[in-house]
Amino acid sequence: MAENRPLYLGPRLRRLRRELGLTQQAMAGDLEISPSYVALIERNQRPVTADMLLRLARTYRLDIADIAGDDGEDYARRLNKVLRDPIFADIDLPALEVADLATSFPGVSEALLRLHQAYTREAQALAEQRAAGPRADENEPVREAQRFLASARNYFHVLDQRAEELAAEIDKAGGATAWLAEKGVRVRFLPPEVLMESLRRFDRHNQQLLIADTLDSASRMFQIATHIAHTALRAEIKQSIRTESFTSRTTATLLLRALAGYAAAAIVMPYGRFARAVEQRGYDIDALCALFGASFEQVAHRLTTLQRPGEERVGFFFIRVDEAGNVSKRLDGAGFPFAAHGGGCPLWSVHQVFRRPGEIATQWLELPGGERFFSIARTVTGGAAGYGAPRVVRAVALACAAEHAGRLVYAAKVDPVSAPTTPIGVTCRLCQRAECTARSVPPIGRDVLADDYRRAAQPYTFAES
């Protein structure tokens, strides 16, 4: 016979409340209970009753099974697996104590699991760093997600096709706001402080999509499209990664978010219409921004995805960096050699456009292996509008193979064979150009010569290999 145990859902309720963007007081009002009672439940000092389960399900339109599912067995299984690590070999850990911890203290269990995951990941990264130099972070979730997107050349046929069909439905309804209204969802634009500093929040209880009113029109449209992607295309997004096995849950989370953004772009810029406009306008990004009501960065993203069989366009590599040189996004729609590690070369104009904000810089590039590319770079600004509101300035760049540059308005009158090129490297660790004066570290496999009798112009001189 099943054992009747009190149901403690503190961490799960707290996670749900935060996902809904609610304070404890707001949730208490929705459930018609006191804020202190919500706090007690979240701290696992009160069990969740059957009546409370029904209120949660009815108020936020959730499945009771999703709310009340017992995490205890899953936590116990994962904890037992972690505790078999040899680092714990000399500690007596009775199974009953582990089960009690998993059942009674799920928050502590989750904290221990995260700590062990972080420990394992860092230990593995350190080992790989010592064994393989620059590939130390290969199993880091962001890198793993990037590899997945690159393996698909940043094109997902089923998702793109369904988004195009959905875009046609939205156009027929008179726009995204009208389409959502038909589904019973009202779109409202409110100050960020009302949204608890969010840019977008869906109020399930009142069926309202709340958008920060400080966003520009392109960002508003994209946030609405992202909500539509998360709801109407949820099955297609999950199907895109269902067959994959990742080393971390974080990787899957990052990919779900990335594919929702992909789908949102496909809704705002449907494949067929966008691909035709791209050719007609010579890949003029500013013109495409005006045609589709999208931002420079959104259009640049979309250009990396034009790989539909029979309707392919120029393949692009996309990168986004900040003023410190940190790469925050890397998308590969062309299989370029710097997709995995590239972007850190200071000779690439993507690092120089901060000096002339908003202006497009073009550049012909040549990698150490002789591959030649054409690059377009420009700064973009993110964040909400308003005096004193935090704004983030980044640089984005697109690069395509040199032989395709003539199809772009930016290089239409330039001979790619005679165009002056800038020699760049994938990254200093992998670039063997000994004469480079911008080098920050020696390349792998080269011995550095002493400067006893001679100091060269470049930072390092190397022994002949």
What is the structure about, briefly put?
With 465 residues, the protein is an alpha+beta fold.
How would you describe this protein?
Belongs to the short-chain fatty acyl-CoA assimilation regulator (ScfR) family. It holds the Pfam family ScfRs. With 465 residues, the chain is α+β, with helices and mostly antiparallel strands. The chain folds into four domains: 10-107, lambda repressor-like DNA-binding domains (434 Repressor (Amino-terminal Domain)); 140-268, Arc Repressor Mutant, subunit A, CATH 1.10.10.2910; 272-429, no CATH class; 432-465, no CATH class. Helix content is 42%, strand content 12%. It has a six-stranded mixed β-sheet. Helix 9 (141-151) crosses helix 14 and helix 16 (285-292) crosses helix 17 (296-303). The protein starts with 9 loop residues before the first helix and ends in a 42-residue tail after the last strand.
State the low-pLDDT regions, or none: none
By DSSP, the count of extended strands is: 9
Query: Termini, distance in Å?
Result: 74 Å
Mean pLDDT across residues: 84
Give me the number of helical elements.
Answer: 17
Domain tally = 4
Instruction: Please give the largest β-sheet.
Output: 6 strands, mixed
Widest sheet, order of strands: 5-4-8-7-6-9
Order of helices and strands: HHHHHHHHHHHEEEHHHHHHEEEEEE
Structural class: alpha+beta
Rg over CA atoms: 26 Å
Shape category:
globular
Helix content: 40-55%
Portion of residues in beta strands equals 5-15%
